[in-house]
Fold each of these.
Amino acid sequence: MQTAPPDNTDIAASRFLAGLDADWQRLVTLVGPCAIQRREQGEPYEALVRAVAHQQLHGNAAAAILARLMASFPHHGFPSPEQLATADETQLRSCGLSMAKVNAIRGIAAATLAGTVPSARLAAGMSEEELITRLTSLKGIGRWTVEMLLIFSLGRNDVLPVDDFGVREGWRLLKNLPEQPKPKALAVIGEQWKPYRSIAAWYLWQAANLGKRGALMPDKEPVE
């Protein structure tokens, strides 16, 4: 995950999580203050199109596709909903998009024009669940994708993506468990992380990354 200098909310969240128990304190001390990279006020439309382009692809490959997509429209900026909704199929496919992604992106553009995908200004007044319900109605957009939009584009601080492998693996490593918690179980556990569940998720991603390098050393025997 990308990082940025911590703001006051991130610092408060780091202190809050560190105070939960010895395991959280160890993780926060090891990682340092939260430095989650957000794109505050990012437009949901653009974030969703980018998310679709990245699906099942390495980041560099997706970035190349998006670069070709932007270059194929006038002014070489990010194409507008009007442009994508009426774009020729051949033009979009030539950028490297699969037919399924072409259909998904056109659907996002059409839904934006219809008002289903709100602007960042309107989204600011909507709850997380309202946005998830509305946006997951779009073809090719699942709950995880909307949760990433909420955390990284809209700057929401209390979103817990319980289906995310890295978050569940981070919790398993942090607590030295024999297996990952099920999503429903993690949702219950995560109640104690309110109102900073997005920041908790960020720390658990860090725990998973540290675990890959053998740098997250448990100080107790595995829980049976």
Note: The chain has a mean pLDDT of 90.
Amino acid sequence: MSDLVVAQNHAFQLARTLMVPVTLFRSGDEFGVLPSDELADGEVETVAEYDPFQFGPAH
């Protein structure tokens, strides 16, 4: 299983646990996840946003 797949799974589960949208982002060679409202535009390379009230990535 690739690092991206693991990160996506954990990001989705975190969104469902916190019940807030979260953003999966890349920083160098690593992935990170933060609540979407805590990230400024252009601050990091966004991979996906997960909304707990929708199934799958938010658009």
Note: The chain has a mean pLDDT of 87.
Amino acid sequence: MYFDFTVLTKYLPFFLPAAWMTIKITTLGILLGLGLGLGTAFLRISQKRLFSLPARAYIYIIRGTPLLLQLLFIYFGLRSVAGFDALTSATLALGIHNGAYIAEIFRGAITSISDGQMEAARSLGMPYSRAMIRIILPQAFKRAIPSLGNQFIIALKDSSLASTITINELLLKSQQLASSNFMMMEMLFIAALFYLLYTAIFSKTFRFIEARLDVGGAQA
């Protein structure tokens, strides 16, 4: 099979709008996932079953079913009810999916903090909520950074599933171009370059954050 490297620079500009769409979906999904994840983590560690049981059910269902199934369920199942467009559906699916995993990341980080720190804060008259925000969460966040970085990279790659509901991201753009120029491998190669670039940027950013926050020292 002949691979024509000369066409890569020619078709690269055609991928730029799709590359932006990939970043847009990923960013929105991550932001939604962070909010859901942190909120669910608090419910998950609650001593009240009224709060912890729904959080457990959400995590179990989302982690136990494929993202593609969740995406199709939201797009086809809720579009007629709520009027969601493809972008909204993809953002919701990616955010809800990531939220379940991020909740477990935050839960693990929070519970890894010594109980003595919360007890010390409460003995000084600090309310539970303030102790959690000022004492526990900053330490938990530092410990969660490596796992969050991995999850964000997974979210980036999962965004390619949005092509199944006709969102013009990198994977769908490569397939569209290949259907007209019959250069499937070349178009997929360009899409792969963008994903590798984004992954490198994410990895470098989180390594920088880990270094600035001294994550290794926090976990020692």
Note: The chain is about 80% helix and 0% strand.
Amino acid sequence: MIEENLTKIISDFIPGGLVETTILPQCDEISLCLLNPDYSKCELSVEQGLRLMKEPLFWVFCWASGQAMARYIIDNPRLIEGKRVLDFGCGSGVAAIAAAKTGAAKVWASDIDPCAVHATALNCQLNSVSVEVIEDWETCPEAPDIILASDVLYDEKNLPLLDQFIACAPEVLVADSRVKNFNVPFYRKIAELDSFTIPDLGEPAEFGHVNIYYADCSLT
């Protein structure tokens, strides 16, 4: 039923759009319900375009930074094992799913978009992992040990979130391909990965170069 509802929402925005189960090319441990790769790329009507800008369907894609974050987490399990993890702005839930598969003690996924909440719940079920999905990250029932944030800095107005994260958790892991001069106290770059968005959006190659930043305030 959730999948049918999400498909209806997608088709209302994108003619011929469907929810399709996709194995991530760079992280084949995870499958997600995403927009079908052969979705219509024809020019949208003015009404459809305005609606899509007003209510962007971030959750129908696995963004390059999300796929890179998931790959990094699975390849570096010590960062997650036994910890309480909060995935901020979870979208499709890919980072939360990776954390759950990597031995996290507890995982929460948060997103202000109710459709993303439903999509994440569906994807967690698809991957047989236990993740509690919430809308407001500040209502997380327990203090997280580490916060994950993938591709949430596309708007410079979101940069203050980085300070909020370190005020709420001793560790933060950020995956980003948008910020050119990332110079934020406590955060340091620990990895670079080349990735891509699924399904293809035809983005510039620069947005596929993902930097991973880590903040550890437990030592300060």
Note: The mean pLDDT is 89.
